[in-house]
Recover the amino acids of this structure.
């Protein structure tokens, strides 16, 4: 069975963009692939986090994975920091990665621009840790949103380079980026993607938002000039709302356009708010219904399964590099 690996950061609140661009596809693909879904708390600390909040959010995100439909009976859910091999392989990959290729990463460039000379080394190295996550599991497919495409290309480059220099070690993974929903935009600025780190909270619908909040956010959503409700790349705000509508209802674009023919933006926003509220309603309940004990068991099992596979890859890597450890050096005969 082919393998999937993906993850999300336990920072801020997970939003509709995360769900439609990534988690939704994890749920769908888990039946066809052996799947690993990670809560990437080591990535989270590339920005300053409140320790207590980070711990809370890590548990909450694991619960959200389960609540949206990741089945711990068939998929492995685990916390990145529970598997030390992620940090260990990152070091090795650091030694084959080039400054120039990391400097080209647009996510790094964006963050560096905002923080100028105070940008952390962790922010720079973030894509290498991500490559380690993926390569440790001999992953075939990585379902992510559009914003991770460049990181996936780097991951492939690092795998190919290591394989070339030290012998075939890593499977070279493919990105799985959905045709629809790979880049859900902010409701308050359709030129920006919906983002957890956005200071403007009105732009993102969080999966755990209550009905009033959801209603308010859609009501205030920015629209384009004109009045027609149709999918049109030159009118990004309406197209974004329609894309969310399409993904939540499963209706075809032409069906949606004829449904809204002659209706106004207000109607679209109202219907979209109702659909989203109904869609998210059971989620909070499900999140709250998962006991600490149940979650503890799931994450323990996840850690064990993940460790076994990651360790095997790491040992091969170390052997290939000639740094297998003292035990083997001592056994001379
Ligand atoms: P993060 O929690 O930021 O690490 O993101 C988790 C997943 O959500 C990744 O696969 C991202 O590519 C995806 N994602 C984040 N923001 C969006 C968005 N606005 N639209 C679609 N996918 C997104
Ligand atoms: N960098 C990803 C994001 O911000 C999260 C992530 C970390 C990830 N490691 C990963 C995604 C491995 C896929 C595979 O969205």
């Amino acid at each position: 069975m082919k393998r999937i690996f993906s993850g999300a950061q336990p920072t801020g609140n997970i939003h509709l963009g995360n769900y439609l661009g990534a988690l939704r596809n994890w749920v769908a693909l888990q039946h066809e692939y052996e799947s690993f879904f990670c809560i990437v708390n080591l990535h989270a600390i590339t920005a300053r986090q409140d320790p207590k909040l980070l711990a809370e959010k890590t548990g909450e995100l694991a619960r959200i994975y389960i609540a949206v439909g990741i089945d711990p009976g068939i998929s492995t859910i685990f916390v990145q920091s529970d598997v030390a091999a992620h940090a260990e392989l990152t070091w090795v990959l650091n030694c084959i990665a080039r400054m120039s290729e990391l400097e080209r990463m647009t996510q790094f460039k964006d963050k560096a621009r905002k923080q100028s000379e105070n940008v952390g080394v962790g922010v720079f190295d973030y894509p290498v840790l991500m490559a380690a996550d993926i390569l440790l599991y001999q992953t075939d497919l990585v379902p992510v949103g559009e914003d991770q495409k460049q990181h996936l290309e780097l991951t492939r480059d690092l795998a190919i380079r290591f394989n070339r220099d030290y012998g075939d070690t890593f499977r070279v993974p493919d990105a799985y980026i959905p045709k629809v929903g790979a880049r859900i935009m902010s409701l308050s600025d359709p030129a920006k993607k919906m983002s957890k780190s956005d200071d403007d909270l009105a732009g993102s619908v969080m999966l755990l938002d209550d009905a009033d909040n959801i209603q308010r956010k859609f009501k205030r959503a920015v629209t384009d000039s004109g009045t027609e409700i149709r999918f049109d790349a030159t009118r990004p705000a309406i197209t974004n709302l329609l894309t969310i509508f399409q993904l939540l209802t499963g209706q075809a674009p032409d069906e949606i356009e004829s449904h809204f023919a002659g209706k106004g933006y207000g109607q679209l926003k109202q219907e979209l708010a109702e659909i989203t509220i109904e869609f998210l309603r059971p989620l909070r309940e499900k999140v709250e219904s998962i006991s600490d004990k149940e979650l503890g068991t799931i994450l323990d099992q996840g850690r064990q399964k993940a460790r076994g596979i990651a360790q095997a890859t790491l040992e091969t890597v170390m052997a290939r590099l000639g740094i297998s450890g003292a035990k083997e050096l001592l056994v001379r005969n």
